[in-house]
Amino acid sequence: MPFASIASTLVAVIAAFSAVASQRAAAKASVLNTQTTSRVDMEREAYERARNFDTETIRRQDEELEELRARIRTVESHNTELRQENETLERHVQRLERKVASVQYDLEVVKHECASKHPKTPKAPPDP
């Protein structure tokens, strides 16, 4: 075989091996690219799910917090009303205590007046 023919064959074989190697490298790169893209997509989806979950949790907690604040305002208002009512009742009780004390004093005065006007006389023993 002449040298040019061997060289051409050798170049053709090298080109064929190069093409096969290039195809394998491209296939490997494609698989790696697909895996990487798939992993990135999965991570993105997981991030979005977590973000949506967190956003929903925050929204729900904000609603619960607002409900609790409204309940606190209601309870504080009711507590204020009860305190005012309690103060009113305490003043009323104090007035009643003063009246009772006054009536007791008047009763004692009347008792002493009656005792001085009508002294107790000893009772005579019963007849046999």
Structural write-up:
The chain has one helix and no strands. The chain is mostly helical and 128 residues long. The mean pLDDT is 87. The termini are far apart. It has a domain at 28-115.
Number of helices: 1
Biggest pleated sheet: none
Structural class: mainly alpha
Average the pLDDT over all residues and give the rounded result.
Answer: 87
Name the helicity range.
over 70%
Taking the alpha carbons of the first and last residues, their distance comes to: 178 Å
- The total beta strand count reads 0
Q: What Rg, in angstroms, do the CA atoms define?
A: 54 Å
Shape: rod-shaped
Strand content: under 5%
Order of H and E elements: H
The parts where pLDDT drops under 50 for at least 5 residues are: none
Which key terms come to mind for this protein?
1 helix, 128 residues, mainly alpha
Q: Which helices and strands appear, and what pairs or packs with what?
A:
Blueprint lengths: L2 H115 L11
